[in-house]
Please model this.
Amino acid sequence: MARHSSLPVKTFSVGFAEAAYSELGHAKTIAELFRTEHHELVVSQAHLLDHLPALTRFRDAPVAEPSDIPIYLLAREARRTVKMVLTGEGSDEVLGGYPKHVYDRYAVQYQRLPSGLRHGLIEPVVQALPYRFRRAKTAIVNLGIESRAKRMPRWFGALTDDGCADLLRLPPPPDGTQAEPLPVAPGDSALRAILFFDQTSWLPDNLLERGDRMTMGASIEARMPFLDHELAAFVSALPDAWRVRGFTTKRVLRLAMRRLLPTRILQRPKVGFRVPVNEWFRTSMRDYLLEHLTGADARTRDYYRPEELQRVLREHIDGRQNHEKLLWCLLNLEIWQREYNL
Model:
């Protein structure tokens, strides 16, 4: 775009005061390299508290991701000067950009270990680690799940069947009610199988739906160049090693960008668009979270077994485990109930 535009390209980036979660510095490096007209926005927990009820309504369902808030605020900022933006949605799901795309290939080998070794030693030791080891903890739990139907959503933070039964007072659903992922072609590799799940489930049912609702809420349109059907078809026809080789993800994209981007950008580890709600839930949003889930006015409190809910809250607030995805889900359900007086 910079090569072909007679005017500087407008770029927009959002970040946080918490440096570990913010990529503003890296975005600025690229903006300076291509001499764009760059706009930055810093989001705090105050923005979340101010906008969360309205964004819950925008979603039209009691589901949300923490990144809804920065996406909406960034779209609102961009709307002041442009009517349409290009985003990077879909690049991970098409090109293989998540850590799970590396780990899931080893599920079969891990499950060949004796169950006593896995369940009696490896898993308890890993789960006892501090929650800064969240990726290792997630990987070990998920690699041990033999059912593809249960392992695929679990990579995104869904509770296990046992976790649901422990938390909810509601009776478990009858067997066979959990939707199976769309079947993969016989002989497909583990990488192609997990990418297929991402492209047919997580991408359309979460990322694209969420992004569309948030940008439309700010009256701006978003387009996703990485989801061009010809690009997706080309990449999908490549051997696995062009997407993920060893611990290198999005390999073909990194190679294609070698002459355009600095090495320090190309070789950066995956960060993801994470909002620091795990820290906010332990600090500035602690009382807000507790009031919504356990206070006298909580609408959803009776859905859960109180001792299990208290355990989850206590572990997270004390910094022993990271339950941010679960707590975010419960918080949004509570806000939904309040917004619609259910």
About this structure: The beta strands are 10-16, 37-43, 84-86, 221-223.
